[in-house]
From TrEMBL:
NCBIfam families linked to this entry: cmk (TIGR00017)
CDD domains: CMPK
The name this protein goes by in its record: Cytidylate kinase
UniProt GO BP: pyrimidine nucleotide metabolic process
Enzyme Commission number, as recorded: 2.7.4.25
Length: 243
C-alpha cells in the first residue's frame, strides 16, 4: 500500500467534470481537489492554449480556419496529469510558461471557436478520460478531475460528478488583476477586462459555460476564499459519490 492510498477513492475510478468562466477558480481549485483525492488532473484550457502556441510557432494565421485545423490535428502534444506538477510539452518543448502569457490569452479564443480544432482536442480529452477511468467495472483506474468550458456538457456528460464553478464578474476580474498585475486597482481591472469579459463573450459563442445544464451542481465561489472553494467542491464530490 503506498502512502497516498488512504486518500484515494475506495473503488472504481471517479470522473469529476468542472466548467466555468475565466477566473472562477477552476485551475487552482481542481488541482487541489485532484491532489486531495489522489486523482489525475486535466486542464483542457491549457490544451487550447498549447494549440494556440503551436499555431503561432508554425506561423499559422489564426484567422485561417483550415490552416488552424490542420496544425491542431498535427500538434504533437504530451500532457502530464500529476495535479502537483501538471506538464504540457509540444514537439519536445515545455510550453507551461509560454501558454500563460497575455499574447496567448488574448488570441486563444480564435482557436477555441474553431469547431474542427475543438473536435480534435475533444477527442484527445476523451482519450485521456477513458484511460484514467479504465474499462467499465474495473477498479484499477486512478480517476481524473477535468476542467474547462464544455466538460460537463460535451466531453464528459456522463461524468460521476459535474460542477459549474462560478463567481461574480467583479470577483473574477479582481482575482485575475491580482494574479496578472499584482493589484486590483482601477487600471489593473481595466487591463484585465479584455482577458476575462471579452474572452468569455467570444468563447460563449460556441459553448455554454455560464448556466448549469441539467444535473450539474453550481458552486458559487464569489464569497469564498480558495480553501473554502476547494472544500465546497470536495463536499459535492462526497455528496454525489459517497467518497
Ligand atoms: N475562491 C477563490 N478565492 C480567491 N481567489 C481565488 C479563488 N479561486 C481562485 N482564486 C485565484 O484567482 C485566480 C484565478 O484562478 P484560476 O484557478 O486561474 O481560474 P480559472 O482557471 O477558472 O480561470 C488565481 O490567482 C487563483 O489563485
Ligand atoms: N474545454 C475548454 C477549455 C478552454 N476553452 C477555451 C476558453 C479560453 O479562452 C481558453 C483558455 O482556457 P483557460 O481555462 O486556460 O482560460 P482561463 O485561464 O480560465 O481564463 O480555452 C474552451 O473553449 N473549452
Amino acid at each position: 500500500m503506498d502512502d497516498t492510498s488512504t486518500a484515494r477513492p475506495a473503488a472504481g475510478a471517479v470522473v469529476v467534470a468542472v466548467d466555468g468562466p475565466s477566473g472562477s477558480g477552476k485551475s487552482s481549485v481542481c488541482r487541489r481537489v485532484a491532489a486531495a483525492l489522489g486523482l489525475a488532473y486535466l486542464d483542457t484550457g491549457a490544451m487550447y492554449r498549447a494549440a494556440t502556441w503551436w499555431c503561432l510557432e508554425r506561423g499559422v494565421d489564426l484567422a485561417d480556419r483550415d490552416a488552424v485545423t490542420a496544425a491542431v490535428r498535427a500538434m504533437p502534444l504530451e500532457v502530464g496529469l500529476d495535479p502537483r506538477a501538471p506538464t504540457f510539452t509540444v514537439d519536445g518543448t515545455d510550453v507551461a510558461a509560454a501558454i500563460r502569457t497575455t499574447a496567448i490569452s488574448s488570441v486563444v479564443s480564435q482557436v477555441a471557436t474553431n469547431l474542427e480544432a475543438r473536435a480534435d482536442l475533444g477527442e484527445r480529452q476523451r482519450a485521456v478520460i477513458a484511460a484514467e477511468q479504465g474499462p467499465d467495472g474495473w477498479s484499477g483506474g486512478r480517476g481524473v478531475v477535468v476542467e474547462g468550458r464544455d466538460i460537463t456538457t460535451v466531453i464528459a456528460p456522463a461524468a460521476d460528478v459535474r460542477i459549474l464553478l462560478t463567481a461574480s464578474e467583479q470577483a473574477r476580474l479582481a482575482r485575475r488583476a491580482l494574479e496578472v498585475h499584482g493589484s486590483a486597482d482601477g487600471a489593473s481591472l481595466a487591463a484585465t477586462r479584455d482577458q476575462v469579459v471579452r474572452r468569455d463573450a467570444q468563447d460563449s459563442t460556441v459553448v455554454d459555460f455560464l448556466t448549469a445544464a441539467d444535473g450539474v451542481v453550481t458552486v458559487d465561489s464569489s464569497d469564498l476564499d480558495l480553501a473554502q472553494t476547494v472544500e465546497a467542491v470536495l463536499a459535492v464530490v462526497r455528496d454525489v459519490t459517497g467518497r
